[in-house]
Amino acid sequence: MKSPAEIATRYEAAGSAKASAPFGKTLLLGIMAGAFIALGGLGSQIASCFASDPSSARMISSVVFPIGLFMVLIGGAELFTGNCLITIPVLSGKAKLSGMFKNWVIVYFGNMIGGFIIAALATFSHIYSFGDNALALSVVNTAITKSNISFADGLLRGILCNVLVCMAVWCSFAADELAGKVLALWLPVMLFIICGFEHCVANMYFIPAGMLTSVFYGIPADGLSLSGFFITNLVPVTIGNIIGGGFCIGAAYYAAYLKK
């Protein structure tokens, strides 16, 4: 297992490469990451659809959802929330601030495209008809809830979420073997799902899926709108994710292990 100081050095190099990667490659890998996270979200919705109580539903979801991050990290893709750690090479002078922002913008919209694609495919292939349309109702209700979150709740839950997601990425760098990486990334992501924190990339699937399902299945969805998606949810959650990953984890570990 790598020490925290060795992890910092390894991510410094990896983050620097991400900040200088070409547009086409970054966008493609961003789309793939968005799709992988969405597939993890879809699987977690199906698995927890008939849970007997909310706590059981979160526990079941927490076991399935990390499959998305597993595919991102092991398969190789670009995830906005994980890339908030690029603050590490920027602070150490190994990457440019402009390169970090370029990566974030490209990956963010790539992730959104990937989430939309999975939401559309799941809707039009009638996957949400599972359980005599019980899954469709659950998908719509999830989207409504997320679209009506307060700014403060979205911001704070976003911070807490990306502390855990970036810890999952960080801890995965400690292992060289597949089994170790899987265990390292799985546990922090399970915790964020159990706690009900907010992940902007996951929400790029959950809310569009609810919108499409509402129309396709004729399920009333009062309070579900584009403004609720982009402004009410994504804005505070994205800011929170940047603070949680880029500063609470990235800047803190830079100061602890790389700052001269």
Short note summarizing the structure:
With 260 residues, this protein is mainly α. It is built from twelve helices and no strands. The two termini are 24 Å apart.
Distance between the termini: 24 Å
User: Low-confidence spans: pLDDT under 50, at least 5 residues?
Assistant: none
Shape: globular
Strand content: under 5%
Q: How many strands, which pairing sense, and closed or not: the largest β-sheet?
A: none
Provide the helix percentage. over 70%
Could you give the count of β-strands?
0
Elements, N to C (H/E): HHHHHHHHHHHH
Number of helices: 12
**Mean pLDDT metric:** 97
- Radius of gyration, taken over Cα atoms and rounded to an integer in Å: 18 Å
* Content-based structural category: mainly alpha
Question: How would you portray this structure in words?
Answer:
This protein is an all-alpha fold and 260 residues long. The protein has twelve helices and no strands. The protein has helices at residues 4-19, 23-48, 54-64, 67-76, 80-83, 87-92, 97-124, 134-147, 151-172, 178-195, 200-217, 226-257. Helix 1 packs across helix 12 (226-257) and helix 2 packs antiparallel against helix 3 (54-64). The mean pLDDT is 97.
